[in-house]
Amino acid sequence: MTQPPSPPVPHPGPVGPTPHLRPSSQELKKLDRRHLVRSMQRGDVQDRVVVVRGRGCTVWDSDGNELLDAAGGGVWHSPVGHGREDLAAVAARQITELEFFTSLMEFSNDQAIQLAARLAALAPQGIERVFFTNGGSEAVDTAIKAARLFHFRRGEEDRTWIIARHNSFHGSTYGSGTATGLPPMQQGVGPNLPHVAKVSAPYLHRAAELYGLDDPTDFLLRELEETIIRIGAHKVAAMIGEPIMAGGGVLAPPPDYWPRVRELLTRHGILLISDEVVTAFGRTGTWFESERRGMAPDMITTAKGIAGGYIPLGATLMTDIIADTILDADTGFFHGYTFQGHPVACALGLATLDIIEREGLLAKADVIGTWFAQGLAPARELPCVGDVRVEGSLAAVEIITDRTTGRPAHWPTVVAAAREIRQRHGVIVRPYGHNLALAPPLTLQEKEARRVTDAVLDVLSRIRPDVDTDERPGQGRP
After folding, report:
1. pTM above 0.85?
2. Could you give the residue ranges of the DSSP H alpha helices within 389-445?
3. What is the pLDDT of residues 27-68, one digit of tens each?
4. β-strands 236-241, 196-199 pairing
């Protein structure tokens, strides 16, 4: 005889996570190689570092190795450090209140509203409106679409061109990836987004090579204006640029560069998008680097540090006139993402801004910069180093293979140097192009900063710049 079904058991309330056994380190790496599609790693490289825990500026891998994070979670991230229980508590509290509801159409949530108002209060003058995304690439895509739509709604339908710069990084989605000024991002995946042009970046260390006897700003402004004229000023929607080019190797422009770019664009009715995915929220010692650089942007794209790295979050900030224009009465801004304005992410964003203020992390970025500038100064004398650049807590050591010509090192060379720094000294730095990049959590201490710079100096002192191979630097090769 069939038994009647048992009555439902009342839910006992909140419970802890179900205990489970983590696979061994060897098994994790095997599963990684079998199932994960990896970003920016050559297919013949089998190295895997499986990070399983973090606290402050330190992370631990699955083999139990303790590693000092000098790269901000590896990607210019984690401004407030890893493993913060105060942020975990914020996330848990918000999840119990409201884990998610859409921010499309007439819906919103209290956390998104409060964070938008807070960002507007911190942003440069004139930036009042916020569109939330899940990360920087989406923020850039949103800004590109908003710029084109802005001109379309104002009757200038031909304004579709976007001007970006070589050596820039603006993301890896279809639109942002086309704007990115690194050729591998566009190779083999075309056709790419149409109507995107590239101009030269400010690269003062190579000024004589790139600009001749010209003043760098004069050269770059002349090239930009010639590009605008060649396309047709009436066809250009916007220019996008980072206040300081992080991915390009921490390239800071001359002081007069951005004010003159802004004046030129205004004269031609072209919008300016400031990409602050890396530089915002204290990374360079201020809330928004664009303000200090005199950019006066029409839009700002942000991500990375906005929620401390504890959850994906990005945003496109814009002026009232852009927002009001794209919010057409008939269709509105027909654009959006499922998780935009996610309440848990926005709650963490608010808490992260509180921590940056409460712990004085804006000022701390400049302190870290001083430690890096002092600690890396001897690197300038090494045969394989072309330049050392420090802006706030961002730093880049440019690796070369020829002291006479200053020829940049190849990517595998820099990857090998970063790997050796990790393996010899337990320090994580980021290989980026022909640079070793630093961007630690803003909670970094002086002893930790010294460990980072000593590790970089030790490994780079082993490199012979007159041999250009893919071998490891510990073998006496670049």
Report:
1. yes
2. 411-425
3. 998 998 888 887 777 666 778 899 999 999 999 999 999 999
4. unpaired
